[in-house]
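Instructor's aside before we start: the two examples that follow are unrelated to each other. I chose them only because their records fit on one page, so don't look for a connection. First example below.
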Amino acid sequence: MSVAAPRPPLAAAFPGPIISTRGLGKVYGSGKVRVEALREVSFDVDPGEFIAIVGPSGSGKSTLFYILGGLTSATSGSLFIEGKDFSKLNDAERTRLRRSHIGFVFQRFNLLPTISARDNIELAHEIAATGRPFDAEMFNHLCDLLKIRGRVEHRPNELSGGEQQRVAIARALITRPAILLADEPTGNLDSQNSEAVLSMLHASSREMRQTVLMITHNPEAAQIADRILHMRDGRILKIEPGSGRGA
């Protein structure tokens, strides 16, 4: 039986840039141990856009990831998510915005080992506390999209690395976040599984109108994005077009 496509997530309806940064800076430490992790970072991201952020170790891309996700604060500059100024939100407001608008995919999967893949996904919905009931139709759609329908009753240690990463993507998408942030999502995968996961991220951007920002050290992986942000020494050196095509 075919599964009806889910309704578009929040990103589709927002009229302006879904993410906007102006002069973002981040400083760690002071005096002789002072480190400028970010320096005057400014860019806009449109709803539904797929952005890859690339750069060598220490370039600032991970710091930018944590600031965009509301997991740490910038030292200077501003960040707007769907027009809301993060710097003017208190901790509770920032947490609510992060839970309802942003999904995360990490390199290490971060699945709870003692429960099934299904329970990992359902738990993410409960933690988000969106006020919406669990959407079984959305769950089934994600299982089909990510090709994990026959594996969701298994625990993480019974799944391959590629399957675990697909479960992690489903967990991130189950709450219909407007933005998906992926930090080196193929870093622990072989080439075949890497290609599959990149295709899934591309599909979530295209089929669900998800806004995706992916950090990667792999220039080939970055090419599937609509645009590529190159970083070095805490700055954006250049922004160039990607292919915009799936892996």
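Example two begins here.
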Amino acid sequence: MSTLSEKKSMYETVMQQFNKIADEIHLDKNIRKILEATTNEIVVHFPVKLDNGDIKVFTGYRVQHNNVLGPYKGGLRYHPSLDINDAKALAMWMTWKTSLAGLPYGGAKGGIQLDPRDYSIGELERITRRFTFALGDNIGPEYDIPAPDVNTNEQTMAWIADTYMSTKPTAERSRNKHIVTGKPVGSGGL
């Protein structure tokens, strides 16, 4: 039986997969250097007031792996075990997924290290809005387009879109509605 310290991380797994395939297809060494590295690793710490009046500081991540084929694209998850290495692995897998599907997007992933079952709807809204504000211009409709993932949904995406658009001048807001995918129809989703 293996211990937690002996368990291979998701990032180690994805790097093993990448190196195996890169070797098999004789990937150019310079292309390999580009694809084995992330472009940006954003870590934000942000305070949120909870329903009981306490302040809690949350940690959020957004890893942008590669955008050669188009804007970064990928989900945001809320999970207690999420860390930067998980986000890096998931972002790399998103790059492969969008590329293999022939989509004009790159790969990104991220989220917040939390268990959403521990928070009220009001707290989740405040957490989501504060996370969006903390990410700032690291996301945007022509740059990085988040989507729902584990423990996030269309309501989460609506909060993100609303918060992001509120940071833009009124004249630019209609151009920024496609900041996320997976929004409810009433918020501009499909």
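Strands lie at 40-49, 55-66, 72-78, 107-112, 144-148.
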